[in-house]
UniProtKB/TrEMBL annotation:
It comes from Micromonospora qiuiae. It is found in: Cell inner membrane. Pfam families: MFS_3. This is Multidrug-efflux transporter. It is a multi-pass membrane protein.
Length: 423
């Protein structure tokens, strides 16, 4: 029996491995570009405001066009969306050093290129999760393992990408590093194009099979609102997206205030959180075959927020780094089961739009968190702000657990199941 199954499973496993590698490569290129593009502006103009504008333009498309990303995936399919985005981003990034070499790179043109790259990245993450769902199947634990690997790829890229970019910029210059960025995108596109087959399962369902309720750029939002369980979960998701930004802003200021302005301490605190997130992805993968996604999701919510209470006390730096690592490990332990629950709760004709809606709403909450965090710290101080952060996040975790206790399985109709099989 095992011998007969192996050949059939091997192509899907290779395709899923290609999705992992492509996702990691694309994320690595994005993280490198996050440092290299503003640095290029600083080298050429010395203007910090202009460098900040480049960063703002790179993230603005998700806030403005995020809901439209699901429409793109529904129309063209997850695989095609990712391949086109990777190759187009490779060309756009490569255009920067080419234009600079011929002295044709104005600041306005650079902003245009950065905006194009940002737009191309809008549907990428949701398409990646959707494609992984198609390849991994409908088993919740298998989906949790797949999402855990994707979380790990992203977290490794987030930690290593800027560090590698910094080393290469120092050795070669920002313009040369952008060629490496372009290569990561191109390699990602090639992996998906070559190893993920263009089967009926990986293409969007026929237009006549997409129900009217699942059309339009806000279809994902409507689906979330109509689901009693997810409507409550989204309160916690948005709260965490908001409060996490407050924490990221508060940590350097905590190091500055409590440890005599030692920048190394601020770096350690942020690195501890990032390193914990990488470890958490591995733990999430191991738990994926043993525990239900709902149980892991609920436990991870408290693992994320309870360590924040320790930040209120004057404890040594190693202790702070340790508790932040524990908290950071909870990110993939919560994200992986959450996306697994989403994937099994909706049919293929709406799944990508729901994932895109969750991402967009969370990303809109993020900048508001930075703004509110800065205002709160300026008015009340770091410690008081951290107290409010810990209290509000604990309430959000309690809300999530209450929602999970009401979680009931969703049985897809015959038409919905057929559409899922088409994908």
């Amino acid at each position: 029996m095992r011998t007969a199954q192996a050949p059939a499973l091997a192509p899907a496993r290779r395709a899923l491995a290609a999705v992992y590698a492509a996702g990691g490569g694309s994320a690595f290129g994005t993280q490198m570009a996050t440092l290299a593009l503003p640095w290029l502006v600083l080298e050429s103009t010395g203007s910090a405001p202009r460098a900040g504008l480049v960063f703002a333009v790179s993230v603005l498309p998700m806030a403005l066009l995020g809901f439209a990303g699901g429409e793109v995936i529904q129309r063209f399919g997850a695989r095609r969306t990712m391949v086109v985005a990777d190759f187009a981003q490779a060309a756009a990034i490569a255009a920067v050093p080419v234009l600079a070499a011929v002295d044709r790179l104005s600041f306005s043109l650079l902003l245009t290129i950065v905006a194009v790259i940002g737009v191309l990245g809008v549907p990428y993450f949701a398409a990646q999760r959707d494609l992984a769902t198609e390849l991994a199947g409908s088993d919740p634990k298998a989906l949790m393992r797949a999402n855990s690997v994707l979380e790990g790829c992203f977290n490794v890229a987030a930690l290593a990408g800027p560090a590698v970019a910094g080393v290469l910029i120092a050795a070669l210059g920002a313009e040369s590093v952008l060629w490496f960025n372009a290569a990561t995108y191109a390699l990602s596109g090639l992996l998906l194009w070559w190893f993920v087959p263009r089967t009926s399962r990986a293409e969007p369902p026929p237009a006549q099979q997409v129900t009217a309720a699942h059309t339009g750029i806000l279809a994902g939002v409507r689906a979330l609102h109509a689901d009693d369980f997810l409507r409550r979960v989204m309160v916690t998701t948005v709260s965490f997206g908001f409060l996490m930004r407050v924490l990221m802003l508060a940590l350097p200021l905590l190091a500055f205030e409590r440890f005599g302005g030692d920048a190394k301490v601020g770096g350690l605190l942020l690195s501890g959180f990032g390193a914990g997130a990488i470890a958490g992805a591995a733990v999430s993968y191991l738990l994926g075959s043993r525990l239900s996604p709902a149980l892991v999701f609920g436990l991870a919510a408290f693992q994320l927020v309870l360590p924040w209470w320790v930040l209120l006390f004057n404890v040594p730096v190693p202790a702070l780094v340790a508790v932040l690592a524990v908290s950071g490990a909870a990110l993939p332990l919560s994200n992986a089961p959450f996306f697994s629950i989403l994937a099994t709760r909706f049919a293929a004709d709406i799944r990508a739009k729901v994932i895109q809606a969750v991402m967009t709403i969370s990303n809109i909450a993020g900048p508001l968190g930075f703004l509110a965090g800065g205002m709160a710290i300026g008015r009340f101080g770091v410690t008081t702000t951290l107290f409010g952060l810990a209290a509000l996040s604990t309430l959000a975790a309690v809300n999530l657990v209450v929602a999970l206790r009401r979680l009931s399985p969703v049985v897809l109709t015959g038409t919905q199941a057929a559409m899922t099989a088409v994908r």
